[in-house]
Structures are given as structure tokens and as C-alpha cells.
Amino acid sequence: MTILHHLRQPRGCLAFLFAVIFCTLSAVMGSYVYSACQKASANYTKLVSDIMLAQQAAPQLREALEEGSSRQPNNKHIEYIDHFIATSKQHLNNIQTNIERDRFLTSNVNYLINHFSELDNRLSDLNQQAREVHQHPELIEPLQRGAMKVGGSLAWLYDKLLEEVYTMSSQQSLVMQRLSIAINVLLVVIIGAAITLSMAVIRLHRQRNVMHQLMLTDELTGLYNRRHLVNVAFAVLTQAQRDKTPLSLLLLDLDHFKQINDTYGHPTGDEVLRQVSKKLRQLSRPSDTLARIGGEEFCLLMPNTSTPDALQVADRLRREIEVSELGGLNLHANPTISIGVTTGYGGSLTFEQLYSFADKALYQAKSLGRNRVESLLPPIAKASENAEKAKNYIHSLIS
226-398: what fold? Predict the structure, then answer.
């Protein structure tokens, strides 16, 4: 009776109306906050890691086939393609499973679902062709072309997925901003919403740090990847151009690494890469940038370093790797490295040009027997080197 009495009064009607509106808004905002928090707390780290790991399958197959392109195709090529098919199907299924677990991401990549089925069928057809090649080796070349085409399609799909994941990650920031506005509107639920917001921000910050780390580093070795190396190279080339200082670039390649994988297995090969990378990082200067840019290929960017100093560093790295004992690995002999060295002066060359000269020097080191250091200087750098040598010679005569 008392409640009905209060409701009959104008003030009671207003309070009841306000309570209804407040409860309705609270329910709506509560539902929105719950949905937004789910979206903001979605963790894409494992999915990004799986995609980046899957992206390595096609380049590894291409390197294996190109490495044996000068020889007649044999059973080894078929084994590489069989391994590529098996790993690609496994990666494809794992990635599709991870996507299906996230309803927000599923709606964004719905247009790519058909590509998963199509690629799975193409891999199955490729697997059938590989079985036929075991009986008819003359069909290996069409099989190789088919594998490379499938690898290209997989690479396109993985690039699209990464774009969508990064887009979802960017949308998380927008969701957090909307949550802040909603919390300011509903002061009553600010304590609970603030806690939810804080936890979501922390998780988002951690996810972004991990994703940023994955984008800049190599997952296997922990070294920087090619993308970060190119960014750093642009900065140090600008600095070299401004200060008129030399910039040396070293390309390092493990000798006979394919034999290590074939003899001891890929897990052992991965451990060799990890330990060699750790040793190279310990021997590098803090000002240098060390990156893994390929399967067993590394690059060392050395600002303000002349050719003689770079050659000295390169030979020290080569000798240290040659005599270093790799823990926990029962190898018949220590791995060795071949190194190509080049130097640009005053930032006159681009990173691609420096890389090209170092790559040619590395090829020369490989051709001359491996486990050695070779240098190839640009024409301008050679002139500067000759001038420096002449100057040093004159000083030595005077002294």
C-alpha cells in the first residue's frame, strides 16, 4: 500500500520512471560493456604466431628446390614437397580452428573461408600427384610447379589474414575509447567498469607488445628480422650521410646447413641456429644490428665502421664460430660460417645496393671453399680505401 501511495504522487512517478530508464540503460550498457570487453580482450598472439610460422613453409620449399635446380630432380625433391604438403595442411587446419574460436574475427574473415577449403583440396590433389611421382619420376617437374603455385596462394591467404588481425587489433583501441565514454555516462557502474577497462587495457598493451615483438624479431632465434633491419638501415644510412661516416654490412651464412638438417634432423638444425645466433649476438657490438634474414643467413649492420675494421670483426666471428662447442648437440664437427663484407661511405649507397655487394662477396666466399671472409667494395668505396691505404703508407714512411 505504501509503495502504491508513493507511486500515485508526481515525485514518485518521476522516481519510478528514472529507475526504469536507469535499469534499462544499465542493462543495455552492461550488455555492451560485456560484448566490448570480450572483443577487447581477444588474444590474437597465438594466431599471429601460427600464421608467421606457416609463412616459412613456402620460402623453405623454394630455397630447397632452387638449391637443387642445377641438378637433375630426384627423390629429395619429392621429400621436400611431401614435407611441404604435410606441414601446410597442418598449419592451415590449425589457423582455421583458431579463427573459428573467435566469433568477431570469423565475421571479418568470412570472405576467406572458401579459400581454406580450396587450398585444402589443392594440397590433397598435390599429395595425390606426389604419390604418382614416386612411381613416375618424370612427372616431378609439374609437381614442383604445382607446389610453388600452392605456396604462392598460401602466402596470399596468410598476408590477408595478418591484415585482418592487425585491423582487429586497431579496432580494439576504438572499443576502449567507447567504453570510456560509456563509463562516464553511467557513473553508478564506474567502479566495476573501471576495473574491467583497466584489465582490458593491460591485456591489450601486453598483446600489442608481444605482437610488436613478433613483427620485429625472428621467432626461432630471437634476433631481429629483415623488416626491422631495413628500418634500421634507413636510419643509419641517413646518419652516415649526415656525418660522412662509413657503414659496413656483413652477410653471414652457415656452411652446409642443409646437410645438418638432412643428417641430424630439423630440430637439431633449429638448435644449431639458436646457439649460433646467441654466439653472434654476444660477439656483436651494442651499436651493431644483427638480424636473421633467411633460413641460415644473417646480416650484421655496422655503423661508423671502415672496411679493415669490418674485416677484422668478420674474421673474429668466423674463428669464434669455428671453435665454439655447441652444447647438447652431438655433431661430428662444429658448424662454420662464410662471410661477405662490403662498405659504403657517406651514405652514398642504398641498403639494397650494399646488400647486393655483400651478397656477391658471400657467394665468392662460398665458391672459394667456405669458412672464409671475402669483401667486395663499391667503386667509390674502393677509391676511398686506396686513398686511406696510401695515406697510411705515407705516415709509416714518415715515422
Answer: Alpha-Beta Plaits (3.30.70)
* pLDDT computed for residue 54 by the predictor: 75
Instruction: In whole angstroms, give the CA distance from residue 274 to residue 382.
Output: 35
Sequence-distant (≥ 6) Cβ neighbours of residue 162 within 8 angstroms:
48, 51, 52
Q: Phi, psi at residue 372, to the nearest 5°? A: -155, 170
Where does CATH 3.30.70.270 sit in the chain?
226-398
Angle, nearest 10°, between helix axes 45-54 and 190-216? 20
Instruction: Going from the first residue of the chain to its last (399 residues), give the mean pLDDT of each consecutive group of 10, the final group possibly shorter.
Output: 52 59 66 60 71 74 61 66 80 80 74 80 80 75 79 82 76 67 66 67 73 76 89 91 92 92 90 92 91 92 93 94 84 89 89 94 94 88 49 43
Q: Are residues 237 and 351 in contact, defined by beta-carbon separation less than 8 angstroms?
A: yes
Give pLDDT tens digits for 321-367.
998 888 878 888 889 999 999 999 888 888 999 999 999 999 999 99
CB atoms within 10 A of CB 39: 18
Q: Taking the CA atoms of the chain, what radius of gyration do you get in angstroms?
A: 30
| Catalytic residue from among 100, 141, 296, 297 | 296
The per-residue DSSP string of 324-384 comes to PPPTT---SS---EEEEEEEEETT-S-HHHHHHHHHHHHHHHHHTTSSSEEE---HHHHHH
Q: Enumerate long-range contacts of 326-330, CB under 8 Å, 24 or more apart.
A: 326/271, 326/272, 326/275, 326/276, 327/275, 328/271, 329/264, 329/268, 329/271, 329/272, 329/275
Q: 45-216 is classed in which CATH architecture?
A: Up-down Bundle (1.20)
309 closest CA partner among 239, 246, 371 = 246
Clarify whether 296 is annotated catalytic.
Answer: yes
Contacts of 374 (CB under 8 A, 6+ apart): 338, 339, 340, 341, 361, 362, 364, 365, 368
